[in-house]
Design goal:
Elements lengths: L3 H16 L19 H6 L1 H18 L5 H21 L5 E3 L4 E3 L1 H21 L2 H4 L7 H18 L3 H19 L6 H32 L4 H10 L5 H18 L8 H8 L2 H7 L2 H17 L4 H24 L4 H22 L2 H28 L14 H4 L1 H15 L5 H15 L3 H26 L13 H19 L2 H11 L4
Amino acid sequence: MIQWPHLYSILGKLLDGHKSPPNCNGRGDPMDLSQYFTSSDLAGIAPEIILTITALVVLTIEMARISRPGIILSVAALGLGLAGVAIAQGGFDDKLLFGGMLYLNKFSMFLDFLYLFVGFLTLIFSQGYLERMGSKSRGEYPALIIFAVIGMMLMTRANDLVMVFLGLELLSLSLYVLVGFLRHNLYSNESGLKYLLLGAFSTGFFLFGAALTYGATGTTNFSGIAQAIAAGSILSDVYLYLGIGLLLTGFAFKVALAPFHMWSPDVYQGAPTTITGFLCTAPKAAGFGALLKVFMIAFPETFTQWQNLFWVLAVLTMTVGNISALVQSNVKRMLAFSSVSHAGYLVMGILVQDMAGISAVLFYLVVYSVMNLGAFAILSLVEKNEQDLTFRQFRGLASRNPLLSAAMAIFMVSLAGFPPTAGFIAKYGLFSAAIAKGYIWLVVIAVLNTLVSFYYYFRIIVNMVMRDEKESLQPATGLLTAGVLALLIAIVFILGITPGFLLEITLNIATAIS
């Protein structure tokens, strides 16, 4: 029964508080804001503050109509560089910020640098691409990329489901606009609308899962959830497992795990090519980073109940991705399904659930980002206005631009997992970690899928080298873009021949979350 006098007293207190000034408590005294955040909290989010200011400055330059591509690139690059300096100055010590909402450690620091690296290279590869595609907008594009980077940083710094949701939404809203950025292109408009509708649908799954998890455990904090599960003080097992399942569904959409991957080929094909390269690298790393933190910190006690589900997701994702890529005639759609298959390989590292698995996932994310950034950068160079990038249009590219075709061949060979490239070391790390945990059949299926992928990766090499076409593409490469591509190729070979340095870093970082 409702206690009406008690309800009246609550309403009276609320009304009294409402009459107080905004910066005062219910008694009219000034509020002590230090109880909500401290100077160390603000110092911890200095990279996000720097990036926000940078994005606003870029937009201001655009509004003042003094924008030039070089000026905007310089301002955005400066902001990304200063954010990197702020992250490095923060140190390697673990920090809890804003009452436990954010958790900074070596794991989040590693991924923050990866986001900044991918964002910076995307801005470089985008120079001249938008003009070739007929887009006159300049300032909004780098600003949206910077906002997306902020969202990714919040996702992997989060120590609370609410903060993961806020970072995920900031990232998603930026990507919705970037995917449909070519307003005159019907394919870009279609992909932006599809991504918006399906993204909003998947966000609902994530938010409902967070609500059920809160209802079962009484908290949305990762550590609090783990403590409630370990102590057995949960309201309902049904609420908890249903919440975990819905959270996993939301993550599965963001990282394109089968059967929640069907948006990716259409979105990847219609989006600006440089954004496609950005979309399948940094946001995927953010999705897997947040997924790792949630299941390693919040739900370690229930992982045995979900072990078989992750096994099925890994097999289904890598198999559907590789088989679908075999029948594609569009290169961007082929790489989209390739991205799906690589997501299946990464699930193997989460399934292992130990230091070796986490280290392998982090190493794989770095290598995968380098390979895909290079591949999509080359696609952006050969793409013409509203042209459909089919395999046929790559015929004879080796005779017209040998250096560019050689770079594309190197990235395809690395994606296929051939030695001495970094792709081979990345897959070997995941497979060996899975074998050590006894997932022999899973590794057998993964190896068979890798053999299947050789066909569609080498298909583009065959078209470039062994076939000729009078109307093939004749791309031109700028000095800056050529230099960055050379850097990416060097990274592919360095990490393939001497991967020990990065492997030591990732293994050290894995201790922060395992």
